Amino acid sequence: MTYGPWPEGPVLVVDFGAQYAQLIARRVREAHVYSEIVNHTDTASQLLARKPAGIIFSGGPKSVNETPAPTIDPAIYASGVPILGICYGAQLLTQQLGGEVARTGRGEYGRTNLTISGSSPIFTDWPGESEVWMSHGDAITTVPEGFVATASCPDAPVAALHDPDRAIFGVQFHPEVVHTTKGRELLERFLYDICGAPPSWTHSSIIESQVQAVRNQVGSSPVLCALSGGVDSAVAAALVHKAIGDQLTCVYVDTGLMRANESEQVEDTFRRQFHIDLVHVKAADRFFSALAGVTDPEAKRKIIGELFIRIFEEVARDLVAEKGTGTEGDGNFAGDGVENGDGEPAGYLVQGTLYPDVIESGSATAATIKSHHNVGGLPDDLAFDLVEPLRLLFKDEVRAVGEELGLPHEIVWRQPFPGPGLAVRIVGEVTPERAEILRNADAIVVEEIRNAGLYRELWQSFAVLPAVRTVGVMGDGRTYAYPVVIRAVTSDDAMTADWARLPYDLLEKMSSRIINEVEGVNRVALDITSKPPGTIEWE
Ligand code: XMP
Predict the structure, then answer these.
(1) Which fold has domain 425-527?
(2) Average pLDDT over residues 279-295
(3) Domain ranges in the chain with CATH number 3.30.300.10
(4) Residues carrying an active site annotation
(5) pTM of the predicted model, to two decimals?
(6) What number does CATH give the domain 203-412?
(7) Atom of ligand 1 nearest to the CA of 420
(8) What is the pLDDT of residue 2?
(9) Ligand 1 atom 10: the closest Cα is on which residue?
(10) Which of 12, 141, 214, 481 could covalently link to 102 via disulfide, CB atoms 3.0 to 4.6 Å apart?
């Protein structure tokens, strides 16, 4: 099931490559207009079937003069739907409509000055001269018939163009980046004045519409949600709880590999604050037994993943016994492969899938459980139907919705944490003692990063426990104990990452606190490896 659909037609952002489209889609949503990313290979009738309020063509890494270069079904130009082409998108519409795009040999990259040379409704709020962000090698040299050029830059004679009759606009620069000082105003004029899109995409209206969608989907059936302590599952649970209250049961499996205070916080928030029916499974002993003597990183991950699923399955079966199977014809908790009368999967499971996962999976309707997810790889006989109330949302929107739902800041702004937990930060054997050492050291790293006001700036910051011991001296005695490694990275998406340049004073404070406060540690090191070649986690 696709959540929404949003009541107003979306503004479609056509992706011409390299994820330029995501930033545009987010900017449109920041203007409170619902946007969706679509593929340039969609036909005009597929695009129009979504009843778009407007269409934005993104930039892209190719040149329109290359073959092959991504293109779009030209029937879209006769549809009457307003179009805004950005960079590559502007060049593409120019070329497809009969204008010319030349390789001038004089590309422009970075900030430049834009001079408005003609009147255009998207420049209403702009002064005559303004700073814009450019990134192009080709340049529009001749505008298509019916178009007028409305702005220029030193190396782009046609930096903006439009066809007043067909409401088709093109800009060579990037209004979506912050360096284009009036970029936001341009997008707002296009969205509000040209497309007539209402600014209705607000956090409270998102919640309202998704609450309704959850109710419509699950009826009176019971629903299960695995909480990990992370932001996505927390927001998804809070949203589903708002929709169906007691029909929701959350399951939190304490693997013994969680961060300091994580379990208490989940209890506090979900049981005490939200009064959600929470099954807290204390399974540390089972995880440590299963991990005893195991040192291979992949083997550890596999053991943890499989045990997690087994425990989740046990809880689901117990709940079926306890709570029954919902009302007739509805989904239920049945975990034994039972299907309801329609041949539909039985049982509902909340999944914190986000919009970027949906885009990556290549289809707005794909609903598969990602294998690396905390609840990954559920067995086939646990035939759950997925409830995915966040599948329209970007991460920043999930956080905003979480705040609006009253979740604590600490959960809403928590840095990502891997499904296998501290185990991927304990090199070598995972024992309760070693997990405790790492948890204590990690708590100090995080506390000091927070005190320094850096927590939100960093993608992740944590401690790692290597499998070696080194010699030290404390007081009058020789020590032989573990080092702890501080790992802190900046990143946008975890695909690449840079090691964070933490202030020396902060490092010193972390180092002395860890050695003084965490028994079993006598040395602190700093990981200064970026990704690639390193990964963020050590295992
Ligand atoms: P690496 O270590 O591959 O990690 O650079 C990239 C990002 O993914 C997180 N990560 C995981 N998340 N289950 C998860 O849910 C996992 O098994 C897992 N392994 C790594 C990691 O914390 C980082 O944000």
Answers:
(1) GMP Synthetase; Chain A, domain 3 (3.30.300)
(2) 98
(3) 425-527
(4) 87, 174, 176
(5) 0.86
(6) 3.40.50.620
(7) 17
(8) 38
(9) 418
(10) 141
Q: Say if residues 441 and 519 touch (Cβ distance below 8 Å).
A: no
| Cα–Cα separations (whole angstroms), residue 296 to 300, 438, 518 | 6, 18, 26
> Is it true that the peptide bond before 533 is cis, omega within 30 degrees of 0?
yes
| Residue 107 confidence (pLDDT) | 74
Q: How far is the CA of 538 from the centre of ligand 1 (A)?
A: 10
Cβ of 44 below 6 Å from ligand 1:
no
Quote the tokens at residue 194: 């040209």
pLDDT digits (tens, 9 = 90+) for 191-214: 999 999 999 999 999 999 999 999
Provide the 8-state DSSP code for 345: P
453 burial via Cβ count (<10 Å: 0-12, 13-18, 19+): exposed
The CATH 3.40.50.880 domain(s) of the chain lie at 11-194
Q: Return residue ranges of the chain for CATH 3.40.50.620.
A: 203-412
pLDDT, position 462: 98
In the prediction, which pLDDT does 337 show?
37
Quick check: CB of 363 below 6 Å from ligand 1?
no
Q: What dotted CATH number matches 11-194?
A: 3.40.50.880
pLDDT tens, position by position, 453-502? 999 999 999 999 999 999 999 888 999 999 999 999 999 889 899 999 99
